[in-house]
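Protein: 8-oxo-dGTP pyrophosphatase MutT (NUDIX family)
Species: [Anoxybacillus] calidus
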Amino acid sequence: MEYKTIIRKLSNRIPILLGHEQFSQFAVLLPLIEKDDELHVLFEVRALHLKRQPGEICFPGGKIDPNDKNAQEAAIRETVEELGIEKANITNIFPLDYIVSPFGTIIYPFVATISHPHKMKPNKEEVAEIFTVPLSFFQQTAPEVYHVHFKVEPESNFPFDKIPNGENYNWRPRKMDEHFYYYENKVIWGLTARIIYHFIELINKD
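Structure follows.
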């Protein structure tokens, strides 16, 4: 291959995550609403009959479909479907940092304002209930943080004889932080807590 061919193939290329096709991709929306003259964060409780994470607290969102123009459109579509609102009621949409999960998913979070929250009609097929937490609670309350440790276990036929130090190879251990917020009788944790923690970090910066 000629060098000019390589240059042509790489020119104006936008890099993406290597191996992204092996990940499931999701988009979620952190909804802000005005309630009692202050900003609140809206959460969902997943319906108990769902196969995946029934009863857990989350933000509106779901898997990015091939028909979605981009991750933002997917987050908006899922929010409209789950909360039973008009697309026009979702405004001031901004991306947060995306998350590459060790469990084979990429999550694209967004924050947005939802107007006329009294018009919401949550989809009972997906949402057991909705509730809100004052934004000030998260600004004033540090989460509890716990660690999940991952263990490296090469498969039985792994070619240790081909690598330096063989079976004594020094694998790098990895851990994941899990954040927990407790509000009244609700436990907010996992990716939902991680996203709200990231959002609070952003807005609390000088």
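Remarks: The chain has a mean pLDDT of 93.
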